[in-house]
């Protein structure tokens, strides 16, 4: 009996020793998970900042482009008046004015293509931002245990 009692006592001591070990492992896993989540949030924040800087650069370029287009438009109106003979500057010959006008049209077309490219980049940035927000929302939804979710939460998660 004494040996049986000692045996059961020692086995119950082993159980107590293994439980703190499990909680230590659980704490370690929890710390690792939190660290990973923190790193993920930092990466997301960095990506957001990159998109923001890129969007600001695109916006500045669009504003500069708009100014350049306005200046070309003003110059084009002046040149067309000279070509029609409505202006009193007869110093330039007609072939030189036509050459300038064609160069102006080419420049304007080039600026319009560039504007289209910038608008596509801006739209791409908006879509990337939207995707990032959806991914974050999905991560938050998936972090909640399925047993705590109702049907609406599950449907929303599926939709995301």
Automatic annotation (TrEMBL):
Coiled-coil ranges from the UniProt annotation: 26-82
Residues annotated as domain BMERB: 45-160
UniProt entry keywords in alphabetical sequence: Coiled coil
UniProt keyword Amino-acid biosynthesis present: no
Keyword Coiled coil in annotation: yes
Pfam family, one: bMERB_dom
Polar residues: bias regions: 1-11
Transmembrane domains' residue ranges: none
SMART domains: DUF3585
Region (Disordered): 1-21
Domain of life according to the entry: Eukaryota
Protein name per its UniProtKB record: MICLK protein
Source organism: Ciccaba nigrolineata
Organism ancestry: Eukaryota, Metazoa, Chordata, Craniata, Vertebrata
């Amino acid at each position: 009996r004494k040996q049986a009692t000692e045996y059961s006592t020692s086995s119950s001591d082993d159980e107590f020793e293994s439980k703190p070990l499990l909680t230590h492992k659980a704490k370690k896993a929890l710390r690792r998970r939190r660290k990973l989540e923190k790193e993920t949030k930092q990466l997301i924040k960095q990506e957001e900042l990159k998109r923001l800087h890129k969007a600001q650069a695109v916006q500045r370029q669009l504003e500069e482009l708009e100014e350049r287009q306005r200046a070309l438009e003003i110059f084009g109106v002046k040149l067309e008046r000279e070509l029609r003979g409505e202006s009193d500057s007869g110093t330039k010959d007609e072939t030189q004015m036509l050459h300038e006008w064609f160069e102006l049209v080419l420049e304007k077309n080039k600026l319009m293509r560039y504007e289209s490219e910038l608008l596509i980049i801006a739209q791409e940035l908006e879509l990337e931002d939207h995707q990032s927000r959806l991914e974050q929302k999905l991560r938050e939804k998936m972090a909640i245990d399925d047993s705590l979710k109702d049907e609406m939460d599950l449907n929303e998660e599926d939709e995301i």
